[in-house]
C-alpha cells in the first residue's frame, strides 16, 4: 500500500464508504422524487400509489438492519456488498420494464433487500469501527454525500426523463449503482485491525481521562434500551425520518402551486444542498458543542422551512428555494445528530446493535411517510397539510431532545 494512502487510509475508508450513502440514500431515495409524477401519469395511477413502492422498499430495508449487522460480522464485507450490488442493479433494470404498479411493489421487496446490505447502516458501522476521534466529522462527510448525489441527480434525472423517458433513466440508475459502490468493494474493510491499523485517535480519550477529563458514560448505557430518555431518542429519530421525506416531494409541491417541472427539480436540488450543508455543519458542531444543541439548531431551521412552504406558496422564487434548502436539515438530524446522540449515550461496543434497531423504527416511519404524503396530496390537492406536519414534528422533536439532554449529566462520572 502506498505510504501516503496508508497514512490517510481512515479518510480513504470514509470516501469509499460514501458509496453506501450515495446508493441507498442519494440514488434510491433522494433522487427518486422526480419519477413519481411521470410514472404515475403513464401507468394511470396516483402519486401515492407509486410512492408506495418506496414505502415497501424502506420497510424491507429497515427490518433487515439487525440481520445485516450480524452478517457483517460473519461474512466477508466484500462478498456481501458485491452480491447486493448485483441484485440492486438488476432491480433498477426491472423497474425500467414496469407496466403495472404491482411490478414496482414486487421489485421494491428485492431492492429493499439489496439496499439493506449496501445501506447507510453498513457505512455507519464501518466508520464507527475506524474512528474514535472526529467521528462526528467523519459521519457528516459520509452522510452529506447522499445530499450531493440527490442535488446532482434530481435535475439531471428530471431533464433526462423529459428527453428520453423514465424507463431509460432507470437503466442509467442501474449503472450508477455499480459505479458508486465499486470503490467500497475494492477498498473497504470492516475493522482497521484487518490491515494492522488502529482507530483514528485511539487512546487519546484515555489520555484525556488521565489528565482529569470526564469519561463519556451515558445514563442510557446503564439503563438499557427501555429507559425513558432512550425511548425519546428513538421517537425523535422516527419523527424526523418522517419529516425528511418532505423534501423528496418538492417536485410535486412545485407542480401543485403551478410551477414548472424544472422549478420543482431545482427545489429538490435546493433541499439536497441543504441536506449537504446541514450534515457537514452538524458533524462539526456536534464535535464542538454536543449533539443535543446541534440537533435543536437543525430542527429550528427545518421547521421554519416547512412552515414557510405551507403558509407562503406564492412567495418569490428565492424564498421558496431558501425554504426548500432548510427542509434538508431533517436529513442531518437523522443521519448525523441522532447517531452522535447514540454515541454520547451508549458505549462504543453497543453502537452497531443500537443503530440497527434504530434503523428499523426510523425506516418504518420514513417508509410510511413516502405514501402518506403522496396520498395526502391525492386527497387534498395540496401539500400544505404535510408541510404543517413537518413544522409540528420539528417542534415536538425539539422538546424531546431537550428532555434527553436534561439528564445527560447524570452518570457521566460513574
**Annotated CATH homologous superfamily:** MFS general substrate transporter like domains
CATH class: Mainly Alpha
CATH topology: Growth Hormone, Chain: A
Oligomeric description of these chains: single chain
**Gyration radius over CA:** 21 Å
Strand content: under 5%
Amino- and carboxy-terminal Cα gap: 43 Å
Low-pLDDT ranges:
208-223, 408-414
Number of domains: 1
Question: How would you describe what is shown here?
Answer:
The protein is an all-alpha fold and 414 residues long. Helix content is 80%, strand content 0%. The protein has helices spanning 3-7, 9-30, 33-43, 47-74, 77-95, 101-117, 120-130, 135-164, 166-187, 204-210, 219-223, 228-244, 250-256, 261-289, 291-311, 317-327, 329-345, 351-380, 384-406. The protein is built from 19 helices and no strands. α5 packs antiparallel against α9. It has one domain: MFS general substrate transporter like domains (Growth Hormone, Chain: A, Up-down Bundle), CATH 1.20.1250.
